[in-house]
Every structure is written in structure tokens, then in C-alpha cells.
Amino acid sequence: MEKKPPRKRARTEAGKNSTKTKAIGDDDEEIQLVEQREDQSLGVKKKQRVPAQFRNRLVKDMPLDVVFEIFSHLGPRDLLHLARTSKDLRAMLMSKNAELIWRAARKTIVGLPPLPNDLSEPEYASLMFDLYCHACKVPKGRCENIFWEFRMRLCKKCEAKLPEYNEEYLSKQPPEFRYPQILPSVLVDVSERGVYSGYKKRLGSNLWAKILRKEFHALQDDRERRKWLMRKENEAKAVRAHPKLCETWHAAQLRERSDQLNDIRSQRISDIMRRLTEIGWGEEVEILLSRGGCEWDDFEHHKSVRQSKKLTEYGWNGIKDELVEFLSECKKQRLMKE
């Protein structure tokens, strides 16, 4: 008697408010685009997918000069994101023909230091505008810890793996370039339990040392090696000068971002106070504000209040009950004391 093939498991339908996701594999069968689509019942943002047959229509159906003209109006970070959208776009933007696009994008950024000789346009854009660690590539938070001499952004965990620039480190390098004029290093602050100790230490890079060793050992002729050493010394001199410009620009960008976030937080508090007044809690908020002290601090630093995010109707509906409960408890405690 023939065995019947096992029954296929019934395909279950996801609930109304669930979001289906599909991992994007190497074949890039689908590109996920996050768009705002209101759910019929809850107004939840959902992910929509662009079918594979449409994802590269921009590249295939539009004349190349028109595509390049469009891309030339984007910023460096936009181009980086675009290059990671599909293989075709990446191939286009990483080609030599796209150099003018990257150059135009770079020139849209006011005050950005000039392109250094040792980096290509995409490499420079990645150094200045990517926000992830270049070593572990974990997209968690913003990685603003930049080692300009190494041309890398490194998170604290990856920074801890850098070797100290000491005798042990130098002894592993060829004698011909065991000195800072060629072998790059950085001076960093030493902190203990997150507190600056007042000391500094010099760090090296195993990656850079490996690259230099490989180039050096590939040359068999002494004359070629001497020329290589002179060239690397000149390159290192230029690399050491460029970080000063980058540090100044980067510090200004961080200050500007901090000011923007402070403005957003201030506006959010004002909007929340206005909303609370509209539903009858304005008096209690004014009492907290007039008293100041820890009571107002508790309100101002409440997890739903102190966010660097614009207050929307949807966002307000999500925090309203929580804030009303907080103010009710404040009022109860105040009346008990009075």
C-alpha cells in the first residue's frame, strides 16, 4: 500500500495588526521600503515592498545622464544609502563614471574639508557620514568615535581591541618603518570607569600595519623599497595634517546636532504642556513649573516627555494616559502635604 505524501502545513494568515517581514538575501529578490500606510483600525505604520520587477526600473529605463543628473542633487549620506539599495545601483555609484556625482554631493556640504589624497570619494563619504562602526559594522546607535589617522569609526568595544603603540607592537613590524613617520598611531584619553584619568596612551592599528607589511614585502628590489618608504612618509605627513581639519568640522557638526535636539526637546515639552492644558491639567502643570525643584525635574525628565522627537497626534495618544496618571499622583501628594 502506497504511503500518502505528508499533508502540507496550512498557511496561516497573520493577524490584522501584525507586520510581515522578509529578509533581504544576497539575491535581493525584494527591496523593502518603509512607507506610511495607516492601518484601518489603529493607524499603524506598515512596511510595503516593491516587487522585484520594478526595483531597478529607474536604472534600466531612464537614460544614464538623466539618472546622474538626479543623483548629483543628493548629499553624500543619501548616495551611501542609495548604493546599498540594490546591486545595480551599487555598481553604478561605485564606478569611475560616478565620481562626478560624489564630488558634487561633497560640495553641497558647507565647510567640509577637502578630499584627502589617500581616499576615494565613496570612502571619504563613508568616513564622514556613515554612523556605524567600520570594524564590527553593528548598526546600534550612532558611532561618532572617529580615528582620523586610521580612517575609521570605531565603537568602544572595537577601540579596546586596538594594540598599544609600544615596543612589543613595533617589534612585529619590519625594521624599515618602525617609526611614526610611516606607521600611523593615535593618542587617546585614558578613562577609568568612564571618568577621565588625566592620562593619555598611544594606540596603533593592526589593520594598517598589515596593509603596510603586505605592500612592503611585495617589493623585492631595495631601490623600489626605498622609493616606497619615501612615498609612504609623504602620504603619512598629509594624513596627519588632514585630521585637524576633520576634527574641527566634526565637532561643529556635533554641536549643531546637539542644538537641534535641544530645540526639538524644548518644543516637545511646550506641545505637551499645551495638550495637557487642553484636557484640563494645565493648572497642575503650572504649579509644578512654579515650584520647580525635583517635582518639575521629574516631569521634565519623564520618559515620555524628554524625547528628541516631534510630538504628533499619534504620539500624544500613546502618552496621554501615562502623563495624566503622573500628574494625578503629583496632585494627590501635593494635597496631602497641604
The termini sit apart by 88 Å
Structural class: mainly alpha
**Mean pLDDT, nearest integer?**
81
Order of strands across the biggest sheet?
A: 1-2
> How many distinct beta strands?
6
Calculate Rg over CA atoms: 28 Å
- Pattern of helices and strands: EEHHHHHHEEHHEEHHHHH
Biased composition (Basic residues): 1-10
Domain F-box: 56-105
Organism: Rhodocollybia butyracea
Region (Disordered): 1-28
State the gist of this model.
Helices cover 49% and strands 8% of the residues. With 338 residues, it is mainly alpha-helical.
Description of the structure:
It comes from Rhodocollybia butyracea. This is F-box domain-containing protein. The chain is mainly alpha-helical and 338 residues long. Among the domains are: 64 residues, no CATH class; 31 residues, no CATH class; 80 residues, no CATH class. The chain contains 13 helices and six strands. Strands 1-2 form a two-stranded antiparallel sheet. A hairpin with a 2-residue loop joins strand 5 and strand 6. Helix 11 packs across helix 12. It is flat and about 90 Å long. The termini are far apart.
